[in-house]
Amino acid sequence: MKFAMIGAGAMGLRYGILLQEAGNDVTFIDTWQPHIDKIREQGGVYQMRDHKDRHLVHIKLETPESYDGDPDMLIFFTKQMQLADYLKRCSHFFNDKQYAFTCMNGMGHIEKLQQYFADDKIIGGTALIATVLPGPGEVDFMGKRGAGKMNMCPLNEKPDEMTHRLFDELQKAGMNPTLTDDFTGTLMTKVIFNSVINTICTMFELPMGEFGNFPGAYEMSRQLIDEAYDICARADIHLVSTRKEEMAALDRNTRIDMPLHYPSMYQDMIKDRPTEVDYINGYIAQLGRKYHYEAKTHLFVTQAVHLAEFHRQNL
Ligand code: NAD
User: Fold this and answer.
1) From start to end of the chain, where are the E strands?
2) Ligand 1 centroid vs 9 CA: distance in angstroms?
3) ipTM for the complex shown
4) Quick check: pTM over 0.90?
5) What is the DSSP string of 131-144?
6) 131 alpha carbon to ligand 1 midpoint, in Å?
7) Using CA positions, which residue lies closest to atom 38 of ligand 1?
8) How many CA atoms lie within 13 A of 204 on its CB side?
């Protein structure tokens, strides 16, 4: 299959390199000039796994302006606030046969994709796969091959031949995909998951295991989970995990699966980049307002992350 990875950051590189190794034709498209320059100078990307086995992987890299290919599938892995600009700059090679797939965190991206792609060509998903970009031209895949997992669902909830082909390629690439049947429920379940771990670990600058092992972690998580689940009940969103399952997944993920990992919002903050908090906790609070529910804790932690960003910028 022919793929274009729109955004060759941590996740774009992880999905793209593994799809390339599984035998697909992959082109990476990026706009961050120091990263582009480094990849060109090195002749590829240095890839590690859990900080070890650093080796060069050759990739095809283009900018939105230089690319003129016709991929079957565009995979979007930008940060939420970068997506509109990427879509605008890449739109010259979009056509109505192509599919758009993404496992970005947060909410707001699907409406932006809908401005360029028909609903039956959009496939969304979520990824529980930790990846770090230590600097330009370098990527670190956290966890053993096949350790993470992901969900995917077409926007119209009617999987077609292309959905199944994508599923097969992701499976060959070791991403452990599950095809779900509720689009919004699948995405929102991950937004809620991130609204706890990503946010708290970013505010307090903690690796995930430190939060998971904190005796008050259950109470803090429960508060955020309850608000978000109450809002989703009002909005008639059918989450793919119960509150109990979500709490158990948070506990397992922080204490057992990735105790040493710092979530991506933290990694953005320490590099003085804006975080995605407005698209995670901010989105939950905004959805609450629509249904006359004041998500006080989500509103508070949204501002707390902005305060942490503000503090960093003033250091
Ligand atoms: P990323 O920041 O690594 O890359 C996104 C874009 O930002 C790329 O175009 C990259 O070149 C550019 N970029 C990276 N560092 C930059 C810098 N210092 N200055 C300017 N530009 C820079 O993002 P990601 O981690 O690949 O995340 C993409 C999406 O996937 C997000 O929505 C994220 O929340 C989600 N996600 C990430 C992970 C993870 O472990 N990284 C896991 C699941 C979901």
Assistant:
1) 2-6, 25-29, 45-49, 52-57, 60-62, 73-76, 99-102, 122-128, 131-135, 138-141, 149-154, 177-179
2) 5
3) 0.99
4) yes
5) EEEEETTEEEE-SS
6) 9
7) 130
8) 13
